[in-house]
Every structure is written in C-alpha cells, then in structure tokens.
Design a protein that fits this description.
Length: 314
C-alpha cells in the first residue's frame, strides 16, 4: 500500500442528553425513551466516549488525515472545532429530506460516502470504538490498497440463531436481524454466505465500493429511507464489506479477542477480560441492559485509560 495514501476517519455522534434533541425525538415517537433496544437510553446516551476515542486515535493513529463527525445539528461541548483535522458534518449535508429527522444509525451509515471531501480510503468508527495499541495504515488496507475486513469465526451462525428462535423461543434483537438482512441480500445476489461476524469496531472501506454497493442495492436501501428509528427491514452497513469480499475487492481476516474485544458496560467482568486479552481494538458498548451506575464505571475506566487531553479538545 502507498504509505502516502490519504485515509480519513468518520464517526457518527449524538448527544442524547440534549433537551432540544430529546424534544425532536419525542415529537416523532410520541413518547420518551424505553428499554427497547431500538429506542433505549443506551442507544443515544453521551458518556464522552467520543472524547476518549479521539484520544486513542491521536495516540495510536496520528497518521489519520481528516476526522469527520456526523451529527444532528450538534457539536460536542469539549471539541475544538478549529483543529484542522476536525470537520462537523450535519445530517442535512448528506441525507435526503425524506430521511430526516433521523435517529437510526443504520440508515445514516448508508450516506457517509457522500461526505464532501472524503478520501477514497476511509475508516468508519462508532464513537464507542477505540484503539488500545499503535496501528498503521497497513492494518486497514493491504499492499494492493484494498480494505481488510475483520471477522469473528461463527461457523454455526445460522444453526445457533435457529435454535435460539425455534427451540429456546427467544426473539433475535433488531441489530442481529439487520445483519441477517444484509447477509441474505448478498447471498441472493452473489451466491455466497459469510458465516463470520464483523468485529464491531473501526472498519476500512473504499468510497467507490461503498457507492457501488449502494447502487447495486438501491431499491432495498431506498425502501428504508423512512425508518427514522431502527426497523426490522434496516440493512446493516456490513453489507458494504460483504459486497467488497464477494467481488474480490477486500481481504478477509479472522480475529480473536486478542485483536478486537467488546466490553458490555453492564457486564463488569469484561474489564478484567480486557486486561487479560490486551486487544488492539476495543468497544465500550452501552445498551438497554445498562444502568447509570454501569455508565459511570465505564467512564471511569476510559478516564484512567486515556487521562491526557488530546489536541482535539478545548
């Protein structure tokens, strides 16, 4: 890979604690947040994860060119927007009016390739995904310039989900269903099914492949434009990685917890596992299962891990 290749980083971010944003959401739903996974506090709560993620980026990936933060008419209070790498992108800059207002990250992610000035090679991160070790561009793009797609082995994905639904009588959550929809669309189109599960962390893409995938599945994606909140017919963004692999435009790489680890904030034992695995990538995943005390513990963990302010902060 060309060492001088420009690589940008894209985040989605929302401050779910903002009263103006809450009023906009509640006007659309007719109620306040619930414990349901599609509209819970953990879906939107801002625990300053982005601040710590940016600290990890500055420390471990200083070669990133631009950092685009996609928001709904919001800006983190602590962010120094005058920093030359930082660019705030509003939903209205990249999304059609039919989609707005949007509280559905699955839908927003289909439009990130439209960010003005975005490099051909780019990374995408949720604000709760971080680095724990130094990385290089070659950790994301191979020598031929194609992205590396990190997967976890899930040899019996279909069987385990069938058992959960039909034997254990437990419904699959919306997130899993959106992944299943992406897998099904790719299998129908390309005749290949990817058993691996994407590692839920910072992912690499080519803007041209992202745009191409949107054209291949244009009708299916446009059918979700009215999903202001997560819905059963949403299509998870890993469809872009699945298509890239199906067309030979990406490199598949299986990883373990030693490479990429997800901390569920309501499972306190995960912090000890994080220390044991010492992964390169990690995520601090909030959810409908987490309490405010769980979020306080997570914030303290991140503060201790990344105590020093970055140049991106005021």
């Amino acid at each position: 890979m060309n060492a001088d290749m420009d690589i940008d980083l894209v985040y989605l971010w929302v401050d779910g604690n903002d009263p103006a944003w809450q009023a906009k959401r509640n006007k659309l739903t007719g109620n306040t947040e619930t414990r349901v996974d599609v509209n819970c506090k953990g879906r939107y709560a801002d625990n300053d994860e982005l601040k710590y993620s940016l600290r990890s980026i500055e420390k471990y990936a200083p070669w990133i060119r631009n950092i685009y933060i996609v928001t709904d008419n919001q800006t983190p209070r602590w962010l120094d927007t005058s920093h030359p790498k930082i660019h705030i992108v509003d939903h209205t800059d990249i999304m059609p009016p039919k989609c707005l207002p949007c509280f559905n990250s699955c839908l927003i992610e289909h439009f990130i390739w439209r960010i003005p000035g975005l490099s051909e090679h780019f990374l995408y991160a949720n604000d709760d995904t971080m680095l724990n070790k130094s990385v290089l561009p070659s950790d994301f793009f191979a020598t031929d310039g194609l992205p590396i797609v990190r997967l976890r082995r899930r040899l019996f994905r279909r069987l385990s989900q069938w058992v959960k639904v039909h034997v254990m009588h437990r419904p699959l959550n919306t997130y899993i269903l959106t992944i299943r929809r992406a897998l099904a669309l790719v299998e129908q189109r390309y005749g290949v099914y990817f058993r691996g599960e994407t590692h839920h962390n910072i992912d690499a893409y080519l803007k041209s492949t992202y745009q191409h995938t949107g054209e291949v599945f244009k009708a299916e994606i446009e059918a979700t434009w009215g999903n202001h909140f997560r819905a059963l017919n949403d299509i998870q963004r890993n469809i872009y990685s699945f298509v890239a692999m199906a067309e030979g435009l990406a490199h598949k790489q299986y990883v373990s917890h030693h490479t990429s680890f997800r901390i569920y904030t309501h499972r306190h034992t995960h912090y000890a596992k994080f220390a044991r695995y010492n992964p390169t990538f990690f995520c601090v995943n909030d959810s409908e299962h987490a309490s405010d005390e769980d979020r306080r513990i997570a914030s303290e963990f991140l503060r201790k891990l990344f105590p020093d302010k970055s140049a991106f902060e005021k």
